[in-house]
Specification:
Elements: E1 8-9, H1 33-43, H2 47-60, H3 66-79, H4 83-95, H5 102-115, H6 121-133, H7 139-151, H8 155-166, H9 172-182, E2 203-206, E3 210-214, H10 218-238, E4 248-253, H11 256-266, E5 275-278, E6 283-287, H12 292-304, H13 312-321, E7 326-328, E8 334-336, H14 344-350, H15 357-362, H16 372-384, H17 388-397, H18 406-411, H19 415-431, H20 433-436, E9 443-445, H21 467-471, E10 477-478, E11 481-482, E12 487-488
């Protein structure tokens, strides 16, 4: 079934779940190599690695050292916008004395409460009292607490904070600035602002390449996380190097109405789509139940977003190539690809004259989802002859080998010689109509392929090799001649 057109768009977006960086002694003791290490992991957005290492240390460390570990894990939860889990870890750290970082723990807890829209006043008041008690001179801590009290309109308590810190030699200029701010109008909330985008979400998962955020149950989200991470690794290992700005944020809403409302209200995006990757926000949005193909399609947009040589047809054609897949999650992620859509044979037979390779490749427009089904045929054609990876490798290098297009370069043939081969492939699809129309919906199951005989639905790629390999029987074709069918493939 044809999916509604997707859009690959560019919109400006301010980061919505960035960890507040507190300078000075920060949330980390500078002389603590573990703290420095975890700080670097968060700075590099390696959240999955941070979770793994901290959880291991929590199993290994003696109990009296756990407070800082809970603080670090809380900061990691904060980094992926899982504020409730962060608060739970901050509470654990505080119950154990704060690990020497009690002020920062209270500050971070207060901010997470604010992001959820919960009352954070008492937490910041406790941070202010502790700051006076410990005679802190950390400018970042003082400024953050003071700003929060101003935003919460707790000016009396702010004056008590600045007065107490003056008596122990606090930074006079900073304290004067806070007092001056307190005497003016209440500023716009920054420290105590609510995170309108993620506050209503309930499930959060970090993988090496993705942060998944959703309002569905966590066990259901874990399946999406496994598929997303597995697919990215599959592409990296088999087709194209995965590089760039990761992790990508993936929002999966509980139904289509919720997805449309989310896109409209939080992304300023009003098109009705099954899923969308918004490049400038590094955000992918879809909904539960839309199908595996949609998720893989949009992830592929993310993977290819920085490829400056990508031809227009491939912008949608290659992501759409992954809309028809079958696979399994265990014992390791694997997928089968290269399947025509069920309706292709009938459409090709009835509109044969409109499927011309030169037109699909040469007349494609930038970000053209309305022609993605024809463009997908080009990706299938490349796969049919084992050329999809070759194509992407050439695109990556920018090498057309003297041809006009990368498609021609992949085959090392000009378009006029490729056209008959493309038409031959289309006729193969028409010929296999009976089995193609029986293909089930795309599915990635838990432990086995969702259909028993994958090959019966797949047009197998023809192996190509050298003349010697052909003569030795190591490959089935050479120079367009297929020994299995005893004919030239362009016939």
């Amino acid at each position: 079934m044809r999916r509604p057109g997707r859009a690959f768009v560019l919109l400006s977006f301010l980061s919505f779940c960035a960890l507040l960086l507190v300078t000075g002694n920060a949330a980390w003791a500078e002389d603590d190599t573990n703290a420095e290490h975890f700080s670097q992991l968060l700075a590099k957005k390696q959240f999955s690695q941070a979770f793994s290492e901290i959880n291991q240390k929590l199993q290994d460390q003696p109990i009296d050292n756990d407070a800082n570990l809970y603080l670090w894990r809380g900061n990691t939860y904060w980094s992926i916008c899982d504020y409730r889990s962060a608060i739970a870890d901050y509470n654990r750290a505080l119950s154990m004395g704060g690990g020497g970082e009690g002020i920062n723990t209270l500050i971070h807890k207060g901010i997470c409460q604010a992001r959820l829209g919960e009352d954070c006043a008492e937490t910041f008041l406790n941070a202010a009292r502790l700051a006076v008690e410990l005679k802190t001179t950390d400018a970042a801590q003082i400024k953050t607490i003071g700003q929060a009290l101003i935003e919460l309109q707790r000016k009396k308590e702010l004056l008590e904070l600045t007065s107490g810190l003056r008596s122990v030699g606090g930074d006079a200029a900073l304290l004067d600035a806070l007092d001056a701010t307190a005497s003016g109008a209440t500023p716009k909330a920054e420290i105590t602002r609510r995170d309108k985008i993620t506050a209503g979400m309930t499930s959060f998962i970090a993988t090496p390449h993705c942060v998944l955020i959703s309002d569905i149950k966590k066990d259901a989200l874990e399946r999406y996380a496994t598929i997303a991470e597995g697919f990215i690794n599959y592409v990296n290992d088999n087709l194209y190097p995965v590089e760039g700005n990761y992790p990508v944020s993936i929002f999966i809403l509980h139904d289509k109405a919720a997805e449309q409302a989310f896109l409209r209200n939080h992304m300023n995006f009003n098109m009705h789509v099954q899923g969308v990757y918004i490049s400038s926000r590094n955000v992918l949005v879809t909904f539960d139940g839309t199908g595996t193909g949609t998720l893989l399609h949009e992830i592929m947009h993310k993977i290819l977003e920085g490829e400056k040589h990508l031809e227009f047809w491939a912008e949608e054609g290659i992501p759409a190539y992954f809309e028809k897949v079958y696979g399994k999650l265990q014992p390791q992620f694997s997928i089968e690809v290269g399947f025509p859509e069920n309706w292709y044979p009938k459409a090709i037979k009835e509109n044969a004259g409109t499927f011309k390779l030169a037109d699909i490749v040469g007349k494609a427009k930038h970000a053209d989802p309305f022609n993605q089904d024809r463009q997908r045929l080009v990706a299938l054609f490349l796969n049919r002859y084992g050329k999809l990876k070759v194509y992407l490798t050439l695109v990556k290098s920018g090498d057309k080998k003297g041809f006009k297009t990368f498609v021609e370069a992949a085959f090392e043939k000009p378009m006029n010689e490729l056209a008959p081969l493309f038409q031959s492939y289309l006729q193969e699809i028409v010929k296999d109509r009976a089995k193609i129309e029986k293909q089930p919906e795309s599915k990635i199951s838990l432990g086995r392929l969702p259909i028993r005989d994958m090959d019966m639905f797949k047009i197998e790629p023809t192996s190509h090799g050298s003349l010697q390999e052909f003569l030795d029987g190591k490959c089935d074709s050479y120079a367009g001649y297929d020994a299995r069918s005893n004919r030239y493939l362009s016939e």
